[in-house]
Each structure stands twice: as structure tokens, then as C-alpha cells.
Amino acid sequence: MIAVAPEIDWIRKRTIESAYHISEHVIRCLMAREVTIQEIEDAIASGRIIEIHRHPKRNASSLVLGYTGKKALHIMCSEDQNDWLVILFVYLPSRPIWDDPVNRTEQGREDMGENLQHCFFCGGNIEHIKVGNFDYRLEGQLYVVKDIPAGLCVQCGEKYITAQVSKKINALIEQGKFVTTEQVFVLEYEG
After folding, report:
1. In sequence order, which residues have a C-beta less than 8 Å from that of residue 102 and are 6 or more positions away?
2. Where would I find the H helices in 71-144?
3. pTM of the model
4. Which tens digit of pLDDT belongs to each residue from 122-176?
5. Sheet holding 58-68, edge to edge
């Protein structure tokens, strides 16, 4: 049986009804103020499906391209077992993966040292990027590492770093090679 990806009318209906869940990836985008829930809903309302992604062990997903004002958003959507929409991740399409909001780049994969080509979680293709900020925990402490070379799954957004990069990060932390500190805002959800 081939998994059927959600269609745009169903995605819009679920969004209007607030019958959706968002993933941790989306929460990270909200916290970074890259996007708001209203912008996601607006982009889905005006959006269209530009790609369908299938995985043998998971539901199929639809990549929606929509606009909120002049800002283009890509929103990966799937359906859960209870007929709810799941918004897996949201991002602004840009290089090195996208030439423009509709067309992917033709650049070849760069060697990531361990030749990781497919995501463990969804099977999507891995692209080599430089991550602006990467949260890293060591012995209960939160660290932010900037400009880290990583692999990014173009399907689900999972990030990977090599063993060599991990060891270098640990060494920098242990040596106290911090360039700055930043204030961290903590929210407590009361509901």
C-alpha cells in the first residue's frame, strides 16, 4: 500500500479548524522568531504543494509553499493516525538547498567526513550546510555553538554533525574558549 500525502484542501481545512499539532522543529523556529503561528497559517491558506515525500515506515508528507506578505515559507505537513494535521517543520527556502522558493539547487553533495547521505529518521537526503546556531548540552549545561558545519535533512530538518566536529566542540568547551555569553529566556507554560 502506497502512503497518500495530504492534499492542500485537507491541510487548509485542518488549519482553519486548528486541528493540527506542531513538532519540536517548529517550536524552535517560533522561539527563534523566524516565524509565527499566524504566518504559518497565512502561508498554508495561500499555499500549494510543491513536493510529495514518501517513506516506507512513515506517513507520506506534503511540502507546501506559501506566502505571508512577501515572505516565502516551506511547510512540511503530514497526517497522524487520528486524522489531525502534523506540521513537521517550517523554514524559509534559501541557498544552499533552494535557488528560489520553487526550485532546488543543482549543487553536488559535499563530503561530510562520514559520507552520511540519508536521514536515519525519515530517509531524506542530507545536504551539507553551516548552521548559524546549534544548541549543545554537556553535563547539564546549555551551550550555543555558532557557524558549525553540519548535515541537514532536507525532508524533516534533522541536523547531524560528525564525530570530529563533536570532539572539537567538547574540547573548546573544556578549554573555556567562549567568545561571549548570551541571555537565555525561560518560559514556564501554565495551563
Report:
1. 50, 65
2. none
3. 0.65
4. 667 788 887 767 776 667 778 788 888 888 787 777 777 777 777 887 788 788 8
5. 20-22, 85-91, 71-79, 58-68, 48-55
Residues in a beta bridge with 131 = 148
What's the residue count for the chain? 191
- Dist. CA 46–CA 64, nearest whole Å: 10
Q: 106 falls in which pLDDT band (50, 70, 90)?
A: low
Angle between helices 8-16 and 37-46 (to 10 degrees): 140
With 0-12 / 13-18 / 19 or more C-beta atoms within 10 angstroms meaning exposed / middle / buried, residue 80 is exposed
Tens of pLDDT along 146-157? 888 888 787 777
Q: How many CB atoms lie within 10 A of CB 173?
A: 16
Q: Position 121: which residue type?
A: F
Interacting residues of 148 by C-beta distance below 8 A, sequence separation 6+: 130, 131, 134, 161, 165, 169
User: Per residue, what are the HEC states of 43-90?
Assistant: HHHHCEEEEEEEECCEEEEEEEEEEECCEEEEEEEEECCCCCEEEEEE
Enumerate domains of the chain plus CATH numbers: 8-91 (3.30.2310), 108-185 (3.10.20.860)
* Cell representation of residue 4: 497518500
Query: How far is CA 109 from each of CA 52, 55, 162, rounded to the nearest angstrom?
Result: 21, 21, 15
Q: Please tell me the predicted confidence (pLDDT) of residue 159.
A: 79
